[in-house]
Write a structure and sequence with these properties.
Blueprint: E1 2-4, E2 9-12, E3 19-20, E4 31-32, E5 35-37, E6 45-48, E7 53-60, H1 65-78, E8 83-93, H2 95-110, E9 116-124, H3 128-139, E10 145-151
Parallel strand pairs: 7-8, 8-9, 9-10
Antiparallel strand pairs: 1-2, 2-5, 3-4, 5-6, 6-7
Amino acid sequence: MVKYFNHFITIIHPKKYPFRKDEGEDQNPKVMNDLIIESTNNTPAINFFADGRMNIKGRSLPENVKNFYSPLIEWASSVNIQVIKLDINLEYINSSSAKKILEFLQVLDANNNIKEITVNWFFEQEDEDVLECGQIFEEFLRRANFQYHEYSEAA
């Protein structure tokens, strides 16, 4: 079953977002769902997997930043995974998106279920604005380990 929300948000196994309980499993711990959001011209692709792999890629200037980032923040607060590997590759981030991405990162950073957070921050060669944005985010986080990856523009 696939459920669609605003901005093409797709939740896989969407029973009781963001968790899934199968029938007869009331005594068992909840199982985290994958969170998949398809990219648009103004929103990044989001691929958050229950095994701790996470990816945000594209442009971030949604019309309604709160509606777009709320599911991500909720997912981050609920995730119960020891190791997170988050790849962020944003070619453009507007200021309201930057605030919500920072909030998302702070929620991940504060989640005591997570023992290790690695953020791979990708930026285009000579794009000092995107690099600086990642460095600023890093300053606000206690536990996340940032690694910066510069790449050349595709021909």
